[in-house]
Each structure stands twice: as C-alpha cells, then as structure tokens.
Amino acid sequence: MTNSKTPAIYSLPRLTTLLTSLLVALASGTNYVYSAYAPQMGARLNITHTALNIVALAGNFGVYTTGPIWGRIVDTRGPRILLCSAFVFLLGGYMGIRYLYDRGLEKGQDSLGLLGFCALVVFSYLTGAGGNGGLTSSVNSTAKSFPDQMRGITTGLVISGFGLSAFLFSTISRSFFAGNTSSFLFLLAVGTASPMILGFFLIKPIPLPPHEKRPHSHEPVPERAESGILERNDSRSPLLSGRGDEDDDEEDDSAPPSPRGYVAEAGLSPDHRRRERDVELSPQRHLRSLPEDVERPTHTRDMSRGAALAHDVLPNIYGMKLWKSSDFYLLFSILSLLSGTGLMYINNVGSMSQALYAFKNPKYDPVEAARWQSTQVSSISLMNCAGRILIGVISDFGKNRFDIPRSYCLVLVSLACFISQIVTARVDHVTDLWLASSVLGLGYGAVFSLLPTVCMEWFGMTHFSENWGYLSMSPMIAGNLFSLVFGWNLDRNDDPAKGKVVARMVPLPGTEIRCSKGVDCYVDSVYMTIGATFLALGLSVWAGFRDRRKVRNAMIKREMLRRGEADDY
Predict the structure, then answer these.
(1) Are residues 194 and 231 in the same domain?
(2) Reported pTM
(3) What b-and-e string marks burial along 219-250, b requiring 16 or more CB atoms within 10 Å of the CB?
(4) Using CA atoms, how far apart are residues 103 and 419, in angstroms rounded to an integer?
C-alpha cells in the first residue's frame, strides 16, 4: 500500500525538483563556453595556444577531480553542501578571471607573468569544480526522485541543460554585451552562481512510492543488515541479483541468500531448496553446459540490468571492488577516448574557425571571425543538448519496449563521435565547420547522458554518485593528451613569416592571423582523434557483447534452478 506521505510520481514536489535541477544544470555547463572568450583573453594577455589549452584543462580538472568527492558527499549528506560550494566556486572563479582580463598586462610586460598565469589556472579550476558540484547535485536528486521507467528521460533532460549552458550564455552575451568580454565574464559569474541559491532551497531527492520501487512485488521485502539495501525474494531474485557468473573477479556479495520464489513457482522439494541455496552461495561454480532436456529460454524479458534496476536488486559494487572490476575499466576507457576527443574540439574550435576563415582570405576581419567562432559554440551547445535528450529517449524506449540493454547505445554515441572527426578532417572552409561542430556536439552530449545510466545499471544505485565520480575522472587522461597535442600542433604550424610564435590569436586591426593554412593548421591532431574514436567504437561493441552474454548466462542459471539441475554441480 502506498504511503500517503510519499508524493505521487506526477506531483508538485517532484516537478519542482526536476525543473530547479534543470535550471542549476543550465548554470553548470559554462566550461563549454570557454572558446567564446579564450581567443580574446589570449590576445589581451598575450599567451599562446598551448598556454590557453592548459587554462582550459584546469577547468576540466576541476570537473573531473572533484567528481568522487562531490559524489560521496551527495550520496551521504544530500545536495545542499554541493550547491553552497558551487555558488562560492563559480562566483569566485569567474570574477577572478574577469579581474585578470580587466587588469591586462602591466607596463613593460610582453605577456602574462608566471604568478598571473597560475592565478588564471586556479580560477579556471574553480569554475570547473563549481559547475560539477551543481550538476552532480541536480542529477543525483533527479535520479532518486523518479522510477527507472522515467529515469533515462528525466536525467537526460537535466543533463541536457548542462549541454545547453554554453548556447544560453553566449546568446545573452551576443545580444546584450556584444564585443565586451569583460561584461560577458561578469555575466558568467553572476548567472552561474545565482541558480545555486535557488537550488539550495528547492532541490532535494523525493522518495519513491513502494509500488514504483518494486512494481511486481507480491511478498514482504526483507532488509539485509550487512549491505544496508533492500532486496527482493521473489521469483526473479536469483537471476537478477548479480552481474552474471562470467568473471571470477566480479563476484557480487549483494546476491539474495535464497531463491525461495523459484521453489514456490516450481513446487520443488526441500532437498531441491537446499541444493539451490548451495548454488547461490557458491558463485565460483560456473555453468559449463546446459542439459539437452532443458528448454532454451527464448526471450530475455526480466533478465536485463534494466529489469534488475526496476526490482532494486542491482549489484552494490563500490570501493576496491569497483577498481578490481574489468567492466569499470571498459567504461573508463570508452569515456576517456570519447570525452577526450570532445574536449579537444570544444576547447579549440574557436581557433579552428579562425584558421579556416583566414585561409586564402586577404581581408581578414576580426569581427567576422568572432561571429564564426560564436557560431561553432552555439552549434555544439544546441546539439549537445539535443544529444543528451535524444539518447535518453532512445535508451528508455529500447529498454522498456524491447528490453535492449542501454549499453547497446554506446555504439551509437561512439559512431557519432567518429563521424564528427571524419567530417572535421574534410572541412576546408569556415562556412561548413558547423556540420562537424553539430555532429560532435550530438555525440559528446549523448556520451555524458548515457554513461551515468549505464554506470548505475552495472554497479548499482546505492553508491551511484561516488562510482560515477571515479568513472568521470577518465576524461583527464585523453582530454589532457589530445588538447595539449592540438595546442602544440597549432604552435608548430605558425606562419613561417612570423619567425616565432605570435601570442595574439585574434589579431587587432592591421595585424596578421597566427596560422592561415586552414585545415592544415590542425589536421594532424584530428587524425589522432579519428583513431581514438574508432577504438572507442570497437570497445563499445565489446561492452554490448559482454552485457548480452551475462544476461544469457543468468537466464541459463535460472532455467537450471527451475528444473532442479543444481544437484549436478
């Protein structure tokens, strides 16, 4: 019976949490707007592409290094601490960057000094840490406030706000503060910090009604003292309790203690009951074959991790067990390759558009170049948002209608990122660059909408934010490597007539653009990301295959338990 004090699924408290979480997410994704002001900042402070990439990476570091910390806090203490921290970090970070920009170079300085550059890096780090705090609090509260059947769509909607953030702020700036970078940075400081105050009062996880937690339950649900989580003892429990019996190093301690539902269903004797309990308590005894007289299952309904999530019987994998899981490293690698590609492109697309605009263009117009730069940021942001929503709808539809594991959608997002890099390498005019930016935004947004849900299904809900925090550290590896290689490659392709690296990336009237070779300025870096995304595509196929195989093994195990075959093992 539903607790009258628990709000219904379609109720004002849940709607308030969802909409406020969306607003907070909109204020949290401003790292993606970096390309909208980075060239101007580079010109004013006289710093190179490589240095600007280091500043961008500091913001990314702020996002990914704080993931496990924010995740553990929100899992144990709720979202308010994160929202307070996000307010302080975002306001301080952007106001600090604005101060350095407004101050400019002191008399006699050729470029920004070491102390000033370090301060710029710290401020950038704060903006990333603050944005991640806001996003983590909003996604966590939304995921806990809606049932599995709606979780992909609702969390995808919130995460889409994170992707739309760059478009929102760049559009406001272009409409009201055109050409005024200082005012734009002030807008970022106030516009990102203010929603965190609103979220502090309105965002909170709403408990689910019991019938939504366990839609097929007809029995009392005992509580396991050792794990602190609720588990079902119905006919599906033995099958859905773990990740499958394939890997010795991934045994799940959260498996239900006894398949009593199967005994009731099949009418087995107490002897069979004891044999089944022995099998459940001996996960190292793998299935090696299926007897010929056992009918092969013909469908996987109720067998996927999605079905397991609906019954609250997912494995509770975290801590050292997470780090020993081969599945963790598989997802870690896929996310690192795809997000690293996206970060390299997003951080440098302004410079790419300028290089293409300057190619064979004797009348270089800095104002027109800035417009093309803004076009790329807007294209990425809009499609980032669309990708986050679209993959949530696709994964939910596939799982709910056809019981297709959400991990299968990894192939789609990897393919989108791969295609984006093929298009980038072939675009040789600035008017066509929006195509590459749009496809990249679509794939990149889908990556960060799908992976949290897959993480939840593969490792459990209890420590979801902490686990996702560790997994989301993966972009630091490929993201740092790819971005630094891009900056180095662009510095290397400086126009020979310069004689040395020129610091100004957006030239003042009468000066030259830094690299006017078009796509040749950076295409070598794109070849690198083509290989990376192709590798991610292969790993995504392997992830779907592993997921399917584990489901099949679990089906066989259930069938053998039903038929009383456990005594042969």
Answers:
(1) no
(2) 0.66
(3) eeeeeeeeeeeebbbbbbbbbbbbbbbeeeeb
(4) 42
Write down which residue in 161, 176, 207 finishes a domain: 207
296 & 194 share domain: no
Domain count for the chain, please give it. Answer: 2
Report how far residue 358's alpha carbon sits from residue 319's, in angstroms, rounded to the nearest whole number. 51
Tell me, yes or no, whether 42 and 150 share the same domain: yes
* Same-domain check for residues 133 and 237: no
pLDDT in tens, the chain (569 residues): 445 578 888 889 899 999 999 999 999 988 888 887 887 788 889 888 888 889 998 998 898 889 889 988 998 899 999 999 999 999 999 999 999 999 988 887 888 888 999 999 999 999 999 999 999 999 899 988 988 778 767 887 887 788 788 888 878 877 777 668 899 899 999 999 999 999 999 998 898 887 665 444 333 333 333 333 333 333 333 333 344 444 444 444 444 443 333 333 334 444 544 444 444 444 334 444 444 433 344 444 444 454 444 444 556 888 888 888 889 999 999 999 999 999 899 888 888 888 888 877 777 777 677 778 778 888 888 898 888 888 878 887 887 787 778 888 999 999 999 999 999 999 988 889 999 999 999 999 899 888 888 888 888 877 877 888 888 888 888 888 898 888 888 878 765 544 333 333 334 333 345 577 788 888 999 999 999 999 999 999 999 888 877 767 767 777 777 776 544 44
Q: What CATH number should be reported for the domain holding residue 52? A: 1.20.1250.20
The verdict on residue 513 lying in a domain is no
Q: Is residue 409 part of a domain?
A: no
Kindly state whether residues 132 and 44 are assigned to the same domain.
yes
Burial of 357 (0-12, 13-18, 19+ CB in 10 A): buried
Rounded to 10 degrees, the C-alpha dihedral 509/515/518/522 comes to -140
Q: Which residue type occupies 468? A: W
Residue 198 lies in a domain: yes
| 256 and 190 part of one domain | no
* Residue position matching structure tokens 């999530």: 309
